[in-house]
Amino acid sequence: MDPLLFKDARDGSIEALLKLLESDPLILERVATTTADTPLHVAVVLGHFCKGTPQAQSHCGEICEELNQHGYSPIHLAAASGHVNVVEMLLGISRELCYLRDRGGLTPLRFH
């Protein structure tokens, strides 16, 4: 993953993420095809979420269902980490995420 993108996801810096997206609009697409964890996977484990701007939410919506190398989606990771507010925000993007199954067949609520 791009080091700056990883840092922004880790720090929960929406402003920095938007600057990266402005300078490189395809950065999230490249990351999604070259790494196992998306920036959203990293951010939700730490209790961060890109909310507030339509541009950030549209990018998050595109990767909410992606599984990482261990077979977990961002909502599985947020639930397992106990970040209820992040789970609620993800469900605000799509209620269908609560039915998403990991590679083991567990939904986010069963996973937690």
From TrEMBL:
Which SUPFAM superfamilies does the entry link to? Ankyrin repeat
Q: Does the keyword Protease apply?
A: no
SMART domains (alphabetical): ANK
Q: Does the keyword Hydrolase apply?
A: no
* Keywords, comma-separated and alphabetical: ANK repeat
Annotated ANK repeats reside at 70-91
Know the name of this protein? Uncharacterized protein
Which organism was this protein described from?
Vitis vinifera
UniProt lineage = Eukaryota, Viridiplantae, Streptophyta, Embryophyta, Tracheophyta
